[in-house]
Specification:
The complex is a heterodimer of chains A (about 350) and B (about 525).
Chain A (H helix, E strand, L loop, with lengths): L1 E6 L5 H25 L4 H13 L2 H26 L7 H18 L4 H30 L3 H21 L22 E3 L2 E2 L1 H18 L1 H11 L1 H6 L4 H28 L10 H12 L3 H23 L4 H21 L2 E6 L3
Antiparallel strand pairs in A: 1-4, 2-3
Chain B lengths: L1 H15 L6 E10 L2 E11 L4 E5 L6 H8 L7 E6 L2 E3 L4 H6 L2 E4 L11 H6 L11 H15 L14 H14 L4 E5 L7 H16 L3 E6 L2 H7 L2 E6 L2 E7 L5 H9 L22 E11 L5 E11 L3 E5 L6 H7 L8 E6 L2 E2 L5 H6 L2 E4 L3 H5 L6 H5 L10 E2 L2 E2 L1 H14 L16 H15 L3 E5 L7 H16 L3 E5 L3 H7 L2 E6 L2 E7 L5 H8 L14
Helix pairs in contact in B: 9-18, 15-16
The chains are: A mainly alpha (about 350), B alpha/beta (about 525).
């Protein structure tokens, strides 16, 4: 008898879910071991995290506020993956969306009912413009969108810092790196939690419906899965690539708009807060499913919120980021390992 | 019982030869699910010889060599090197034993220089070395082995012939005594091939040996000292090349007992062959992906209710031909008509709309989206039509029920229509693709190598499908490199060579040798007056 490791062509759904749960638990265990070495009181830290995240109204509100941008950036990355593109640039598109929406809020006079919709449009357009060049470069010159979207993130983040500390700096002098409070807000429905959250969830469900229940969605899935098969079946791969990548940028831009106008109420340096990058993790966790995006965003929100609680207990932000990194690492590992099974064979 | 017979066969070979062979294979067998890749293969390789391994695609040449180079392990039999039995766990061990292989698709790092490629993954490469020294070492190696390469050149800038020399140099630099070449001339110009042959003769003259895999008869006769013919995974014979001629080798390769079974006979109620062609191609030329003219002024006519076979060694323009006839590849010049309608400028959509079905030669590359579900894949031709789509709405439930009926027609049992199509076996994938295309093939079906890599059951299914279409009055263009299949099925056969049609012959009036000669580039006048205008 010998034990061999055999690759199986595809994993089962239950196996995939189980592998991911194990991955998250393992990441937390590794994190706990590290904490134990630093001499922290694990029990105390744990109960504090649970209480401040789930045990209070403010904790739950925070979860909702964090989940909103993550759902959208996760959706943005996921939809680009559907057409076979890696949008690593949700961070930059988020910034562009926040920037464009803020510009409208600050410089377009008018009542809420007029300006707020304009801000939505501006946010989406901002994100779309930010991904336009990478999209065209990929579609017409086969330039990897991985690089181009990533590099534009730095431009986007720095653009925000520039306007928030320079031309658009709050004249009242309250802050050194933010604009004045925006005159228009996304309305709230529960404490601080604004309508951006239900909107993000509805949008995710709508995207899933479009992908599954329209001809266009079918064509996008084929084109993203195998461009050669698309060519064979006369499905216009390039057109779908461009449209979907622009949609991806628009969704990430919308996340930025909601963050500026719903959560922060101003444009401030660092507003993107790695939401774009964490969106990649959300999409990876979601494995191409829209419901998965919502669940992944909720999970990441819990991790981030727990991280904030940990910070109040003297754990620094790098450690928190390390834990999120561990979870992604273990998930990627689980994704690969769930394609293998161990078999016992008789030696030939 | 069989084991004994195999051992006896091995001894018989041993007693014939005086010199100790470098490599001896005894009773080798290898099975894949549903396929016997090799069975009872005995083979020996003497020092100083160039030994050709001849056989059709799927005859088991590559599998046999993959066992010799440690990629696969034989399920039965023994590999003996220099008189002692070995068992290679990996290609690394085979290389250490002096067995190196140059694959059809080169395994070079294109962004690296020649010197870097030669030294990559070689334990004799010094840990730290300057670029000049590395290149000097390479030049020295190349000179000692008499292979001209430019050590400082980037591999991506080299011609295919030069890249192949780098591959050979890399294998030989590892002190290989046995060099296996898998269809080495397929990618070479005649001048490059002549140069390769010279280098191989020099290598063999130093007491080494070469195994030369090919299905080109001319080459085998030109380069080899002995030739071993494989068919259907078994060895047919090993003979000195001097005692062979082309006709004989063709016959051995394809099989003596080519059954011209009555597949060409029609059912009494079958629709007759139409007087007018459903598909006609006039002076059509097209370029391949690299921009070379791959199809040169080809004219063909296909009538409703007939099967036109396209014979030829793969890579002689068949792929481009099938793409031109389905709107996937643009014509450089010439004309293509379906049912009298000029579609020379049309795309894949129009061809499909005019009732042209297409089984592409690489189903996983272009016929299917392997990661998507069985349903998604099976409905790719009809997703936009009712009842699957109504306006812009797509109905997955209607798609699944269509997929169900296609799978039923193909007699493929699908446990879960939502699972990725790559989980199905190659034969089942192909049955589904074929059935899917038959639904839209109202006038023409273009089938490119539909039986490639399939087991016997699936091959029979394909053939039955094509007969069904033919008798229903559809024109079938059947591209294959298996002469046996072509002779069984086609009414007429067009032979392609270097992008041109060497001639169209009536299957009933032709023998294998003639087609074999045409595949090697000999022209033939048009077939009987009934077949041509």
């Amino acid at each position: 008898m010998a034990i061999r490791i055999q690759r199986v062509p595809s994993e089962s759904l239950a196996g995939g879910v189980a592998a991911r749960l194990v991955a998250i638990v393992l990441a937390l265990v590794v994190a706990a071991i590290v904490f134990a070495f630093t001499g922290a009181d694990l029990g105390k830290l744990g109960s504090h995290v649970l209480k401040s995240t789930f045990g209070s109204r403010f904790g739950l509100m925070d979860l909702g506020l964090i989940m909103t941008p993550l759902t959208l950036t996760g959706l943005a990355v996921m939809i680009a993956l559907k057409v076979g593109a890696w949008n690593i640039g949700a961070e930059g598109q988020f910034c562009a969306g926040a920037f464009a929406a803020t510009a409208v809020a600050l410089f377009v006079p008018g009542p809420n009912v007029v300006v707020l919709p304009l801000m939505f449009v501006a946010g989406a357009l901002g994100g779309m413009i930010w991904i336009l060049i990478p999209t065209l470069a990929r579609a017409y010159a086969d330039v990897s969108e991985l690089i181009t979207t990533l590099l534009l993130n730095f431009v986007g983040v720095l653009l925000i810092y520039y306007v928030a500390t320079g031309p658009w700096l709050d004249p009242s002098g309250v802050s050194f790196a933010s604009t004045a409070r925006l005159p228009h807000d996304v309305p709230s429905f529960w404490g601080d939690v604004h309508w951006g959250l239900p909107l993000a969830i509805l949008l995710t469900i709508a995207v899933a419906a479009v992908l599954n229940f329209t001809r266009w969605g079918y064509e996008v899935r084929i084109a993203g899965s195998n461009p050669n098969a698309a060519r064979y079946a006369a499905i216009p791969f390039r057109r779908h690539l461009i449209v979907v990548m622009l949609m991806s940028g628009a969704i990430a831009g919308l996340a930025g708009m909601l963050e500026a106008a719903g959560t922060a109420h101003r444009l401030q340096g660092g507003i993107s807060n790695n939401f774009g990058y964490i969106g990649i993790m959300v999409a990876v966790l979601a494995r191409g499913s829209a419901i998965g995006v919502i669940a992944g965003a909720a999970l990441m929100a819990i991790i981030l919120k727990s991280g904030i609680s940990l910070q109040t207990q003297g754990v620094n932000i790098s450690t928190v980021l390390a834990i999120t990194g561990l979870i992604l690492f273990f998930t990627a590992l689980a994704d690969e390992l769930s394609h293998y099974r161990i078999v016992r064979t008789k030696e030939a | 019982m069989t084991m004994n017979m195999m051992l006896n066969a091995g001894e018989a070979v041993a007693s014939e030869t005086k010199v100790q062979p470098i490599v001896r294979l005894k009773g080798i067998a290898k099975y894949f699910p549903g396929v016997v890749a090799n069975q009872d293969v005995d083979f020996d390789l003497l020092p100083g010889e160039i030994h050709a391994l001849l056989g059709e695609n799927g005859a088991g040449k590559s599998t046999l060599m993959n066992m010799l180079t440690g990629i696969y392990r034989p399920d039965m039999g023994e590999i003996v090197i220099d008189g002692s039995a070995v068992s290679f766990a990996s290609p690394v061990e085979a290389i250490a034993a002096g067995i190196g292989m140059v694959h059809q698709h080169f395994k070079l790092v294109k962004a690296f220089t020649v010197a870097e490629n030669i030294h990559l993954g070689w334990k004799e490469t010094p840990r730290r070395i300057a670029r000049d020294l590395l290149e000097a070492r390479t030049a020295e190696l190349a000179a000692s082995l008499n292979l001209a390469v430019a050590p400082g050149a980037r591999v991506s800038d080299l011609s295919t012939g030069e890249q192949q020399r780098v591959e050979i140099l890399r294998v030989l630099s590892r002190k290989a005594r046995v060099l296996i070449l898998d269809e080495p001339t397929a990618v070479l110009t005649p001048a490059e091939a002549a140069e390769l042959f010279k280098a191989l003769r020099q290598f063999a003259a130093r007491g080494n040996a070469v195994i030369f895999i090919s299905h080109k008869l001319d080459e085998v006769l030109e380069i080899s000292d002995r030739v071993t013919v494989l068919r259907g995974g078994r060895k047919v014979t090993t003979m000195p090349t001097g005692e062979c001629d082309k006709r004989m080798l063709a016959r051995l390769m394809v099989g003596q007992e080519v059954v011209l079974s009555n597949m060409r006979e029609r059912r009494p109620d079958a629709k007759p062959v139409s007087p007018q062609p459903v598909l006609s191609l006039r002076d059509a030329s097209a370029r391949d992906d690299l921009g070379n003219m791959a199809l040169k002024r080809v004219s063909l006519e296909l009538r409703a209710g007939e099967i036109l076979g396209i014979a030829g060694v793969a890579g002689n323009g068949q792929k481009e031909l099938s793409q031109v006839l389905t709107g996937i590849r643009a014509l450089a010049s010439g004309q293509v008509e379906i049912c009298g309608k000029d579609l020379s400028r049309a795309g894949a959509e129009e061809f499909a709309a005019f009732g042209v079905g297409h089984i592409p030669e690489d189903r996983l590359q272009s016929g299917l989206a392997p990661a998507l579900s069985v349903t998604d894949n099976v409905v790719i031709r009809e997703y936009g039509k009712a009842p699957l789509s109504k306006g812009w709405v797509y109905r997955p439930s209607a798609a699944t029920s269509l997929a169900r009926s296609i799978a039923e027609a193909a007699s493929v049992r699908v446990p879960d229509f939502g699972m990725p199509v790559r989980n199905l076996s190659g034969g089942n994938q192909q049955r589904l693709v074929a059935r899917r295309e038959m639904r839209i093939a109202a006038n023409v079906l273009v089938a490119a190598y539909p039986c490639r890599g399939l087991d016997v059951g699936a091959i029979n299914a394909m053939m039955r499908y094509f007969i069904e279409l033919r008798d229903a009055g559809v024109g079938v263009l059947f591209v294959s490199e298996e002469l046996e299949e072509l002779l069984k099925l086609s009414d007429r056969i067009a032979v392609m060579f270097h992008g041109e049609v060497m001639g169209v012959v009536n299957t009933s009036e032709v023998d294998i040798e003639t087609i074999g000669l045409m595949m090697g580039g000999q022209r033939r006048g048009p077939a009987g007056a009934t077949a041509e205008n």
